[in-house]
Amino acid sequence: MTTKGPISGAWVVIRTCPWDGTESILGLFPEGKAALLKLEHFMDTPEDDEKYTIEYQLFKSVEQQLESMQKCKENRAEWDEKSRVYENYKAEQAEEKVILPEDE
């Protein structure tokens, strides 16, 4: 391997089937050049309407994943509280409305 330092992510070559839309991972590479070489190899004999994509996926540590989940839970709790306050406000406004009888 020619990469220097720790690997924090990987390049992924993905093939999308033209008939049913399923995706297949064709390779996982630490360097973009390697992913491009693999893609070039596939393009030597392409099939009808096949779609290839190259994505970069970041790796997360356990600590990063736990932190991300905690932030998500906090945001959901905040959203639920705001929704509850808004629903209470709407209910109070509906109760305060007084329908006046029309003059005949």
Summarize the structure.
With 104 residues, the chain is of the alpha+beta class.
Give the overall shape, derived from the CA principal axes: elongated
* Estimated structural class: alpha+beta
Q: Report the span from N to C terminus.
A: 90 Å
Strand content: 15-25%
What about the largest sheet?
3 strands, antiparallel
User: Mean pLDDT score, rounded?
Assistant: 84
By DSSP (H or I, 4+ residues per run), the number of helices equals: 2
Q: What percent of residues adopt helix (DSSP H or I)?
A: 40-55%
Reading side by side through the largest sheet, how are the strands ordered? 2-1-3
Radius of gyration: 27 Å
Helix-strand topology string: EEHEH
Q: What features would you describe in this structure?
A:
By secondary structure, the chain is α+β, with helices and mostly antiparallel strands. The protein has two domains: 9-58; 61-95. Helix content is 45%, strand content 22%. The protein is built from two helices and three strands. The chain has helices spanning 32-43, 62-96; strands at residues 9-16, 23-29, 51-58. Strands 2-1-3 form a three-stranded antiparallel beta sheet, with helices on one face. A hairpin with a 6-residue loop joins strand 1 and strand 2. The N and C termini lie far apart (90 Å).
